[in-house]
Design goal:
2 copies of one chain form a homodimer. Helix content of chain A is 44%, strand content 16%. By secondary structure, chain A is α/β, with parallel strands linked by helices. In chain A, the strands form 2 sheets. Chain A has a 7-stranded mixed β-sheet with strand order 7-6-5-8-9-11-10, with helices on both faces. Chain A has a 4-stranded mixed β-sheet with strand order 2-1-3-4. In chain A, helix 3 packs across helix 5 (113-121), helix 3 (68-88) crosses helix 16 and helix 14 runs antiparallel to helix 16 (368-387). At the A-B interface, helix 13, strand 10 and strand 11 of A face helix 13, strand 10 and strand 11 of B. Strand 10 (332-339) of chain A pairs antiparallel with strand 10 of chain B.
């Protein structure tokens, strides 16, 4: 379990866990916590059963807090303390988890000294995106075991936002539709060479080779993912078309007809966006096309500290103006941006449902804390997309003066 | 003619216009000028008929320079001197005007001391976007007389990029297709209230009312354009649906279902983008939609100094990251961006053709210099879009957490 969380240094608080009676001070702290979150329609039930906050008639859900130390941890550690306390079972959420989290995210802008205190404590730690640091971060998340992800991803193991032509299609159909949507957007043709930066378990590279006869060079620094992807390429008999490289994309060489990166930019610090653009610039033919698909933000904010610590070390979701830093220094022009925010909420709903259906297996392999950690991460991500804190930008680009660009986007929506 | 150009202070140069013999110094200057533009495939013919630069076999066009003072003006005044000298007939361009200008724009990044000198001199003058300053700038360009624009715009007087479903449709069809494309993108419904900032001669506002039954409040600070638009509203019998306000959009009040601004952002200085966003934020309902259509840039560069001085005072074309400054402070989320760069080149080709067909009337009303100024402006703009120096961004947005957003973009491309 070392890789999924740092042990807490809560000894000083643990001494207080003899459940002392709830006092005026505890209720004052709870009210301040709610005010600091903009007074969401989510009351807090304290360890003696008493409640603080809005009444049942307006409540969307309810936070149950196990003891004083947990209450104080929310003050001291903000969202990191909230996430960890939920993982440990010291916080329970009554009512629908996603709806309650969405209500928390949707509340008005927080105010007050407590917020300032919490915000200060919530600044993400400095994170260096050296290759060594990135390997460690990627290992932390992606090398939990392919079997674990297979329990709740689709059959092709696509761990990014799907594209649902209609909201009711299955996750498998939606992920395949996403792969095809990407291939259409870059107008992929047979025999073309594609560079992929951050290929996950290889689903897009394999699809491009299998369905479109493209020759793909795909980079990833996750050993387990690369091993899985290579095995798939052999199984599907397309080993000669796809090369999976266990290395950093900065080491890519050669020239390509297209560049794609789906769900990788979140792991690249903004300080490295220009360097990513340099790789794209030197890799792309004059009439090459590119696509970057990434979680984004409407406004620049640091990643939730709990997610950044416990789930995705070093992650950051950029605004569009920050994403543009990949392209603008290299005179690459944006052709098309599509926001698939609600598609990611839908994708995550499928993942969470499958995860819950397999929670017993996850618990048997890891433990209850791990189950609760991932439940909160998946449900919290749905809430973030529903509330608009997260967006999903799919961005198509070419050299600013390229004439090899489609006349309109109609071809994306007509059957071929 | 005072409003179309500032008289030149060239007395010191005019004394040299007795066409002195071309010497080694003149040829050296001409070679340096070409090098400073990245050695484009465009030779310079000097006033004695001798040529400098690439040979006829690679040449796309040719610059003919009338005298030494013009040559020196190119050094001293860069693109401003080039434009003015062309207007005055001191520079002629042999070969296709658009192709030659495109070749000049497409040449490699310029280098050398002369470039540095010219770039320093070419910085646009500081321009204050006060309401008074804006009125003056807008008057300069848009109040040349509606009759003048009617000579070369489409019948609905749309002076922004058209949308050509296929490259061969007429300008009239393409402008109507653009108006409909905009209405579809914001999913305009009957009875909805629309705020338009910068309405030109009113074509979009009139279309929204006439075809979709929308109630539109449209702002413009050009007196001639507003007068024309009001007359059209009466003629079309939709005066009760459209209100044309001769005022700055900052003075808009009330709440609207949609915000649109087509071809206005180019006249708003980046220092005022956040204030534009404030107007949008306070004007838009919770589930409101918005569209901004603007000429953009792949990289941040000042406007061509000749265009900024002689054609569009105070104009600036933003990069996408600069455009995002309108939205990001207000938590507005980008739903969709489409780049219509080649559609603007096509639109301008239609305008230039109509302009040339009516050049005699323009000359009779103004003078030859005016004809040459507008010819260079229209042809140069085509070259800027073809070479990628200009882009055209059509950006759709809503509040970051809005659920009143379309599920996919397919509805834009299916017949209704």
């Amino acid at each position: 379990m070392e890789s999924h969380g740092t042990p807490y240094d809560l000894e000083s608080l643990e001494t207080q866990t003899a459940r002392p009676r709830v006092g005026a001070f505890d209720r004052w702290i709870a009210r301040k916590l709610l005010a600091a979150r903009g007074n969401p329609p989510v009351p807090i039930r304290l360890w003696d059963g008493s409640e603080v906050g809005p009444g049942a008639e307006t409540a969307v859900g309810r936070l149950r807090i196990a003891d004083r130390s947990t209450l104080l941890r929310l003050v001291a550690q903000g969202e990191l303390g909230f996430g960890d306390a939920y993982s440990e079972g010291k916080i329970e959420i009554d009512g629908d988890l996603v709806q309650t989290l969405t209500a928390l995210f949707n509340a008005a802008e927080p105010k007050g000294w407590l917020t300032r205190l919490m915000t200060r404590r919530n600044r993400p730690r400095a994170h260096t995106h050296t290759l060594g640091g990135s390997r460690e971060s990627i290992h932390h998340h992606y090398d939990l075991g392919n079997d674990f992800y297979a329990l709740w991803l689709d059959a092709a193991m696509v761990y990014t936002c799907a594209y649902f032509p209609t909201p009711t299609v299955s996750l498998e159909e939606a992920q395949e539709a996403k792969l095809e949507h990407v291939c259409r957007k870059i107008r992929l043709r047979k025999g073309e060479r594609v560079l992929e930066a951050g290929c996950g378990w290889g689903a897009l590279a394999l699809y491009m080779a299998r369905r479109h006869g493209a020759r793909v060079t795909a980079f990833n620094i996750s050993r387990e993912q690369i091993a899985y992807a290579r095995e798939q390429a052999e199984r599907q008999g397309i080993g000669s078309l796809v090369e999976f490289v266990e290395d950093d994309y900065h080491n890519a060489h050669g020239r390509y007809d297209a560049f794609v990166s789906v769900g990788m930019l979140e792991h690249v610090g903004p300080e490295n966006y220009e360097a990513l653009g340099r790789v794209i610039d030197r890799s792309l033919h004059a009439d090459g096309r590119g696509l970057i698909h990434s979680i984004g933000r409407p406004q620049s904010v640091p990643m939730n500290r709990w997610i950044e610590r416990r789930i995705f070390p070093g992650s950051y979701c950029p605004t569009l103006s920050e994403m543009a830093r990949v392209l603008e220094p290299w005179n690459l022009g944006v052709l098309d941006i599509e926001n698939l925010r609600l598609h990611y909420a839908k994708t995550l709903e499928h993942w969470l449902e499958r995860f819950e259906n397999n929670a017993d297996q996850v618990r048997a392999r890891f433990d209850e804390r791990f189950v609760r950690t991932w439940r909160l991460y998946l449900a919290g991500s749905i809430a973030a997309f529903l509330s608009g804190s997260f967006q999903l930008f799919q961005l198509v680009f070419a050299r600013a003066g390229s004439h090899a660009v489609p006349w309109t986007r109609e071809y994306l929506y007509t059957q071929s």
